[in-house]
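Key idea: predict the complex, not the pieces.
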Amino acid sequence: MSALLEVRGLRTVFPGESGPVPVVDDIAFDLDRSEVLALVGESGSGKSMTALSILRLVPKPGRVDAGAVALEGENLLDLPVTAMRRIRGRRISMIFQEPMTCLNPVLPVGAQVVEAIQLHEAISTVDARARTRDLFAEVGIPDPEARLDAYPHQLSGGLKQRVMIAMALSTRPEILIADEPTTALDVTVQAQILALLRDLQRERRMAILLITHDLGTVNELADRVAVMYAGRLVEVAERRALLSEPLHPYTRGLLRSMPALARPGERLPEIPGVVPPPDQWPSGCRFSTRCAERFEPCADRVPSETEPAPGRRVWCHDVERRLDGGAGK
Amino acid sequence: MMDLEPHVISNLVTGALLVGIALIARSVRRQRLWREAATQLWRRRRIAILVVGVYLAIGLLDSIAWKGGVPEDVVDVLPNAPLTLIDRAFLGSREASYSAPFADVEFYGGDPLRNPGSHPLGTDILGRDVLYLSLKGARVALLIGGLTSLIAIPLALFFGVGAGYFGGRFDDGVFFLISTLASMPGLLLLIALIMAMGRGTVSVCVALGVTSWVGFCRLSRAETLKLRELDYVAAARALGVTEIRIVLRHILPNLAHLIVITFVLMFSGLVLSEVVLSWLGIGVDGSWGQMIDSARNELSREPIIWWNIAAAGTALFGLVLAVNSVGDAIRDVLDPRTLKEAP
Amino acid sequence: MGAYVLRRLSYGIGVVFGVLFLLFILFFTVTKPDDIARRALGEKAPPEVIEQWKINHGYDRPLWPWQDWDDNLLFDHYERMLTFDFGLSDADDSPITERIASGVGPSLSLTVPLLVLGILVAIPLSLLVAFFRETYIDRMGVFLCVLAMSVSMLLYIIGAQFLIGKVLRWYPISGFDSNLLMLPRFLALPLIVGVLSGVGGDVRFYRTVFLEESSRDFVRTARAKGASEARIMTRHVLRNAMIPILTNVVLAIPFLFTGALLLEAFFGIPGLGSITVDAIAANDFSTLRTMVFIGSLLFILGQIATDLSYGLVDPRVRFE
Ligand SMILES: Nc1ncnc2c1ncn2[C@@H]1O[C@H](COP(=O)(O)OP(=O)(O)O)[C@@H](O)[C@H]1O
Ligand SMILES: [Mg+2]
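Result:
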């Protein structure tokens, strides 16, 4: 049985000084129905670009260069533009990190949600407004009727993010992509928004691709976790397995220093250095320049995928060596 | 003080200009940021830069002048007039009246020319070689753009940086002055200034300078306000560094890219403004604008005299287009964000 | 809001006084009444004639209030300008106010269509160019804009007159007739030239505005909810771009009254622009000074109108 969303060999490039530079490279994962998959990694590792690539929203001059994104077997990358528009917002919705700037400042927030509904359904404005009001109530916006006509600048960050969530849910999508939905918010508000997402996910049984920095979020919401570093996956596993027994050296460092991830540009206390910019990524294992356990093949050869346990994938020469060693015994 | 004749001053200024360009080139090469910007600019706008270079070279050749050395048989110049290199190249080229490009005879009279077939762009009503006049126009245009910028940019920086940095009364005063000047429609103010000061090159440049410094003054004031709040400026002030020194070491260098962009973008606008002024009869002598203006009536003759206006128009268009396209690229390279292209 | 309008207005009045002072400096101290008289009468005019001329034109008084508090040119200048009593032309003694009144109509009949046409041409073009950003259509468009901006207005006019009058030998290339049927015939050419010479700069400016707005996060949101590019451009980008566009347009309105100097003079339209050009040729300082004042006054009003109209397009603006 195939998954709801299957991403295979996804590669997204930006033009660079000497040819295209990949910022997302050979990413592959599945997202099942009503599953929450967390995508974690340092700032600059390509999480947002992965999400945008799925919706074909990579900002110019970047472009998806290779791979496939199959929604129920249909490759979104091959769809004509108009068909793709019917997927966006209808079957896959997305919410972003910065609620401050993601809403149009000159339109009332209600009208923006109404637009999202009417783009996909033939429904009168009155009905769409009524539905928007109900959605506002559902996502916990106090006094929803009055808030319909409020402008974004009149709402707090938390309320704006709730509006974004209401907009994303307005057409009952099968998949919600949430790109660090709480990073820009106050700590107390973060908890509320996460609780809201969890509740909504349970009620509506939709699949979520959750991009996050926060260990608490992963622990609370995620079924599975994919770890990204410098445009590539390094490890994919069930949440419990990953948190209790991380295999990749990067995952281990990440787990030990999880709180620091929230602030972009911050160094991880457990891993020296920062993610190099995409045009300086090493040719072998991308993490080899910062890895404490690197040995001779790491810098030269891209590690291949290994499956140390069912449903668990790791890309690491060290793991590979140990597995081979184990098999040889 | 010695009484310097105009051509000596011109020679000195030209020398100073060359030294200045060399110094700027040197400091551009020394600083990585500027060097990279220059390389990128060169890669993007090679042709335009070369074209500007040609105009500059012509302007320079036309700025070096000395007296004497005129052959006896040349009658159309005063015996003791200082002549530039360009003047000397066209000595004795004068005809009696119109002649078409490369013609052997006068256009209307049909009399033979003194220099048959030697006027690639023809001659004007007074028999002057049009190529010669067009080349002379380059210096005038560069002078208008350059001299005006030399007036406008320091003025703008003085008031803009001063107002932004010191704030208070001075800021209020400058702001009021800017609002007042900006409230007067540009062309009208320009005309008023020239009419009041009397016609002439310097008064045109001063008037253009006064009408064009306001925009950059606003910009540098706003930028200074931002820079003043930066940590290292505050730190420098806490350390007791003098205000003048902070402005010179921390504020001005950070405005350098804006100065360069403004200079280039302003330049072509100034040259085009002069054309309008020429047509209004208050332009600068020897400019392309005057050539176009005086050639305007020749278009109604039968048969038409077209080479005059074509030459001046092309020379003008070439310089303005080259400068505009370099300016466009400079803005992209140095500052893609703060400066929006005003109409 | 009320307090804001009041403050904005009083600052505007302050600026009007500043403009008048500047004009006084220019036209009474840099160019002294004696100079004006001499330019009107000729360099060799005898002193008695000059004195008489100064008396006739009201220039025979001291400049500054401290010279004579009750009767000085500075106060007189303010009083007359602010009461729109502009007096006589320095050149031919005709009343300035009447001439200006007669010029407003012709000026407006050229400049209003010019403004509207300019917007109607420039905005769709720039939307188009911005829509095709980073493609060769965009690059071509920008290149054409820079090209169009690099041609002197004078060359546009001469070129158009030459082409139509000399080559095609169409109708009279200049003149004016307030008859509504005849008007288009005389206005067509100046309008085409006016739009052509302005469109390059406008398209380039609007394009930058549109590009800036289309790189905003809310545009990505609109795409993510499935809106088409055309819808994004018209509903989201254009709405937000209205703010700078409005500034640009409102600030152009005062120029409707001062007229398009070159176009009017070249095409023989007897508007305010032509009056100004004539004043320059005739050394008519009093008319010139009046034109600058009127232009500035309208400009200041335009700025106030822009500031107040921000509130209409941008809900974030609150007047405090
Ligand atoms: N517009 C762009 N142009 C060029 N490179 C970009 C652009 N946007 C993002 N990138 C590059 O893509 C990489 C991944 O970015 P992103 O997906 O935003 O990382 P993350 O979301 O994990 O923090 C970054 O290293 C960044 O340098
Ligand atoms: Mg991100």
